[in-house]
Every structure is written in C-alpha cells, then in structure tokens.
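Worked example 2:
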Amino acid sequence: MLEFAPGMRVIIRDEEWMIKKVERNTMGKQALHCVGISPLIKDREAIFLEDVDEIIPVDPAKVELVIDTSPHYREMLLYLESQWRQKIPTDTAIHIGDRAAMDPLPYQLLPAATALKQPRQRILIADDVGLGKTLEAGILMSELIVRGKGKRILVVTGKSMMTQFQKEMWNRFTIPLVRLDSNKIHQIRAKLPVNYNPFFYYDKTIISVDTLKNDVAYRTHLEQAYWDIIVIDEAQNVATRGDRRAQRAKLAELLAGRSDTMIMLSATPHDGRAESFASLMNMLDPTAIANPKKYTKDDIQGLCIRRFKKDVKNQMNKEVLERTITKELCQASAEEEHAYDVLSEMKLDMDSDKKRGSGQLFQTILEKALFSSPAACLKTIQGRLKKLYKKHGDTKVHDISALENFQAAVEKIAPESFSRYQKVLSLLNDKSYNWNRKADDDRIVIFTERVDTMEFLYQQLSKDLQMKPKEIAKISGAMSDEEQQQIVEDFGRSKAKVRILVASDVASEGLNLHYLSHRLIHFDLPWSLMVFQQRNGRIDRYGQKKQPDIRYLINQTTNEKIHGDIRLLEILIEKEKQAQENIGDPTNLLGAYSVNEEEEKMAGIIEQGQSADKFSQELDGNSININFMDLIMSESTQEAAEEEIKIEHDETLFTDSDYLYRAMKYFNQSEERPVEKLTYVPGVDITLSEDIRRRMQYLLPAEIVDMMKDKDYLRLISDKKFCMQKVEESQQTNDEKAWPEVQYLWPLNPIFDWVNDKASLIFPRDEAPLAVVSTLDGGTSLFLMNGRFPNRKSTPLVDEWFGLLYVQGKFVKPLSMKDALAMAGIGPQKDLANGVDTEHMPEYVRKENQSLLPDAITQAKKYLDTFFTAYEEKANPQIDAELEKLAKLETQHLDYQMSLFPDQSRKQEESVRKVEMVFGDFVQWVNETMHIENHPYIRLIGVLSGWQEGEE
C-alpha cells in the first residue's frame, strides 16, 4: 500500500492534485484532502479515497523529454519563466512590498518585516493618524500573497471606508477586493441559493463591520469559512471594554480563529487599561498574555508596531508640511449672551436629584449642545420636554418651566446672531483666508459633532453662499454605506462640483480627505482629544501636498461661567498641539482612552468648576507620565525598529512587460495584433479576447470589469510612477465611479495568474522541453530542477531552483539556477539564438539526455538533502524554543485561571480545559507548520544540451 504525505503531487481522474492532508478512516484506508494543480481544476479542493479512486504519484523520472523546435526556443523560455515566477520566498526578507505603486518609506516596511519574522503573521499596526497604516497592511499582504499565503482575504472596515480601502489595495497592490456593500449583498442573495455561503463564492472581499454585526446570516457564514488573511480596520472598536463585550468584540474573536494571518489597524489602540489592550493581543495570540492585568513588553514582542509623526519625520522623503493652527474668536451676540445667562442661572431638579458620579448633569448636556449650535440645543431641549410632558401632563413642574424659558432664549438665536456661523461666512469671504471657490484643489472640511448642527450648516451655507447643487455635501453615520462612500469619492475627485464637506464625526476615522483639501474648520470644539486627533488627521497626513490649515472657532462671552468652560476647551487645543510635537499621543493627557470617557471626564471637570490654570497644570503633569500601555508598546516597537530590514528582489528571465508581450504574442499567433508594446513607457496594450474577458471577470473588482466592457484593449504599465500619476488623474474625471484606466503591471497583477496557467500548458505535465543550444559544448547538459519541502499543511518551507551539470554522461556538480542559465548563455533580456538545426536534430541527443534523467532525479535528491539538513539545523532550535515557550506560557495561564477560581468548581474545570485546548491547538499548529519531512517534491523544468555537428 502506498503511503501518501502532504505536499505530494498525484494524478487522480487524469488531473494533477497536491495532497494537503492525509487522514485514515476506521478501516485504515487513506483519505486524501487535495487542491488542484492542473489548469482545469486549479485551486479547487476535493477529498479522494484510496479504495475508490486510482491515485498515481507523479514520478519526475518518467517525464518525457521533447526537443523544442520553436524559433529562439521561445516555448521553453516561456515555460521556464512561467514556472520560475511561481517560486515561493521562504525567508523573512521583503521581496515585493517595496515595489508597490507608492513611495515606500523605511518605516512603512517595518510592520511587514516584523511580522515575517514571527511563526504566524499576526500584528497590530498602531501608527499615528495619517502615517499610512493601510499601505503598511498592503505591503504585508503582498508579501504573504507572493508566499502563497494570500489566496483568500477578508477585510473588515467601516461603511465609509470600504471604497477607499478597496481602491488603495487595487491601485497600489493590484489586490482585487470585492466590495460587499448593501447593494452587492442584495445581488448575491438574489443570485445564490439560500444556503450558499457567499464567502466561498468570492476569495477576496471587503465588508462593513456593521453588516457583519447586524446580519445574523452573515455571522453564520463567517463561522463556516476560513481565510488566509483577515484585516480588521479601526481595531480599537473591537477591544473588550471592562466586563462588557460588545457585538464587535465578539465578531472579532470569532474572526481571530478563522485565519492563520490577522492584521489589525488602529491609531488609538488602547483605552489606558491593560485589560482592554490585552484583549486585542489575545485575539492575535491567545497564548501571549496570561494575566490581562499584568504583562510586559516581552509578552507582546512582535505583535504590535506603534510610531508617531515625530518618530518617523526624518524618514520621509518629502518635506513635512507642518500644520498651521488658528483660533478664530467669535464674539457672542446679545441673543447668545442672553441664552448663556439663562443657562448658567438655571437650576434643574433632575440634576439636584442626580447621584454624584452617575453621568453628566442635564445642564452640562445642554451646554455641550449649545456649544455646537442652537439647532442642536433645541433638539436636546425638545427631546427632554417631550419626556417631561408625558410624565407630568399639564402640571407645570419647575423643570418644564425652566426648560421652556431656556428654549425661548435659544430660539431667538437666528443665523444672523449666531456668532460662530457668521464667523464662518466672513472667513470664507476673507481675502486673507484666500479660499478659491473655483479651484478644484481648494476644498474645505467643516467638522461638527452633532448631526443637527451639520444639517443647519448644510442648509444655511447653501443659502447664504448661493451654492449650486452638489457644491456642498454632508456626511453622517445615518447615511447608508453606499451614500457615505460616494460622498468621500466625490470629495477626492477634482471634476466633482463639491467644494465644502460638512461632516459629523463619522468622517473623523480613517478617511482620506487630503487629496484636494488642506483646509479644516472645527465648527464646534470637541470635548475629546481623540476627536481632535482624528479630525485633524483627515487632512494632515502623509501625501498632503499643501500646508494643512486648521481653524478653531472659539466663543467669546462676558458670562464668567460660560467663559471659563470655553477656556477649558481652548486649553485642549493648545495641549493637543504640544502633544503632537513632543510626546506624540495627545490621549495620554486626559488619561482617558476612549471618546466617551474623555467627554465624561471633561464634563466632570466643567461641573466641578475647575479653573483653567489648574486644568492646564494637570495636563502638563500628565504629559511627562507615560502610560503603562504606551511604555510597553514603544519599547516593543523600538526593539523591532533596531533590526535591519532586508530587501531581496527575485530575478527571472524577462521583465514583467516583456514576459507579458512575449506570452500574448505566442498565445494569439493567429491574431494580427494581439498585443502591442507601448513606446512612451514600459508596458503593453492587450487586445481583450473573450477568453481574457471571461477570466478577468473572476479575477478583478466589478468596477474594473465594468470599465473594460466598452474597451477592446487592456493597458498595463510597469512604471509605478506613471501609474501613481494615473491614479491622481482618475480623480479628475467627470465619471463619478472612475478608476484608473491603466493597471499597474507587476508580479501580483492577476493577469499573470492567467498567463502562467496558459504558459504551463505549453508542455503537458508528463513532458519537459529539451533545448539543444550552441552555447554549450557537445556532451554537456544542464538539467533545470525545482525541489520543494512542504510542511504538513503542504506549504513549501524550502523552495530551491537549480541546475545539474552533466559532461559526457557523468554528473559534475549542482549549480544555482542563475549560474546554470548563465553557463548556457541565457539571462535577463537575452534571447537564445537557434545555432543548431533543431528540426533535424538526431534522436540520439534526446535519448542520451532521457537516459540521464533517473540519475538527475537521484542527484537532485542528494543535493536537496543539504537544504533539508540546513533547514533542520535552523528550524529545530526555533521549534524547540517555541514549544518550550508555549509550555511555560501554559503554566502561567493555568496558574492565573486557578487563582481566579481557587475552589475546585465547574468554572475552574472549564477554564483549565479551555487553556489546555488552546495550547494543544498551538502545539499542533507548530508541529504542522514548522516541521518538514525529507520527502521533497522534485520537478524537472527542462534540459539544456550542447551538440556539435558530426556527433553521433
């Protein structure tokens, strides 16, 4: 009976498969879990039983040599190129991420370099707002894809971020994510059977966290699907807060077990509590932290990277344009002063009855609303009056009278007497502000925290500035995902009419608003430093071409109480600026690490009547007390930063554009002009045949496929600077759904999946090309080989490409692939001339090389033994160290769980069982992924043979 092992290639039902896993049934028969290799069944998964199907191991010694008679040996060279391009990097260097269509900075490569050094690539990228976390995630994803670990990808992000993230991944990395917004989900449900899992239908998807959170069916589908990579954007929203586990946290915990690789992104990664941050770390690695209240930098080493602008400024290859901050003072009108007086003198019974520390006083809530706008304040008053009317009926209790009196005062504040609104109008018309309303690249973002304020500004600015339809836009969380995405798209597209975007704080997280805007106005002052940080980061971010201009509107009033409260908020402006320049993270200052907690803390300070001087001194004191979380994160990051980032670029025979040109010419020899080289930039135009259209339909985002419908060619450019320029130009088109008309041509472009599949069929699986070349002496042969050692999950951990030199039928030595090809006169951009009459080549040349093949396979096995030994010598200590670390951590976890439940109880038993299961799974994972067996899969790629006229 044959013994099968993961990594073996077999022929089943006349197709080639690779074994991923071997199981035995109760009868002792083997069940083979396989993935398709040959084009017809490529990437399809199936299970075969040895007692049902005939299973034939692929034997490289039985491959038939076929003399290549094509001009310049183009068939063999294309075939060799298609195979060599599938070489899998097995080291920890950066191989491709630095070549993406971006200007990569050293600090942006560090997260990928750090993750690749870990057994599993699971990392929290916690860089400050605007440093490029999305790009850093794309770099790591690219590295994993080229390593064969990125076929299935799931990205989870906010509704408004979906299109932006999708475009960044495609335009810069050609990673095709299918956007599962509400419209697409509706289409899928109409298209697929009721019980079909949509996450099996698409390999690479991006979906809103709200969709997954609110859709029970989709959460069920998640439990039944598995990915190679999962990315969670704005990961602070999925952390556990105290004893409360929100739906998002439960969702993230579910996803954490559905992929070997997890990438989390967050500019605000913790809330100051060790337990909250530990929940994120334990999603990445449940063995890392035993006691979530007490851990060190060593426990999170390699799991987190965090830098601030001040830390990486010297690595930026462009001048950093420092933001300018201006306080616009707004003298309160008589109507506003009256409202302030009424508010400050008002005493509410509901506040008198409120227990200390049980939340904000309603008077404070009213003040916060009034500081936003009269419209927001009126909405708050009316909401509370409605409840009081319902409770007390016609009885005029004190609170009703007080609120009605205050309501009357607020109602008198018309737009003409609303000082901050009038300041906005005068600012926009001020010559010193120099806003060019007609310019495509001079747009303004106005932030406000209240939706009612947003609506007021949207309506009133449209009227007073006489703005045409679509010149002013608004965005809030109440809008659908499609509406939010379209607004963000328009704001970054120069030919769109929008000039002003009025945004609630839904737009303060993650969105790129800097492409055509460098002006930001805080219409109201946040009661949270985190909101300051997030808002300003929308325009003050890497890639901003103009100096960010940030304006704060600050009320001036004669009312001492209100003046003091506004002064407290004004101090936040000053301290946020100082923090950005000195400590990096302004959220340390308040010592509260969520927006809600910061707002609650500010409300408490205002209610206590704390003086501005005392408040400022407290914040200054906090600035020198680095939070425990930031301390261990910065130490962990510093150790990673000190390691050198190694970059390796793999070499093959042809450039990307030359390979594509040659391949398309060969595949479509019957067509007159299947492909044309571009003369002004490295790249090609490919005629879109039905075959290509059909294949691209399943490989590319729907938006790209739609663009291709009306075109008869596909333009691919390998010059990344040119492609980056085209991305910018696509933002200047009148088409609301524009994507660049050119695609970035680099090894990860999906077109190469199709080309490599086609080229691999030039020679059938049981044949290999023989090129008889004049550059080699007679009797000299080079066998070009590939040998792989997969782990028990069939992922190659050793992937070697080499040549075996034979002279006069005797083995001489192995050569690197590069040296073997150089010996035969083959190299990058070199064509082999047909120096011999291949069409009349004597059969004995083929037979002599054919007779050497069994020995070549034997020599290849001996040569590969050295790589197996080298891997064992390197990996075994790592495996032992990993298992030893897991054993130590398991003891710590068990001790901690026992301390939580000192009495022997069911809870203790359950917690111990859970720990043992987690660590048992990890030990199994280490053994399956880091061990290899000395049974390499060997392939003959081709043979290069010398021959001289007259030889027999």
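The mean pLDDT is 85. The two ends are 44 Å apart (CA to CA).
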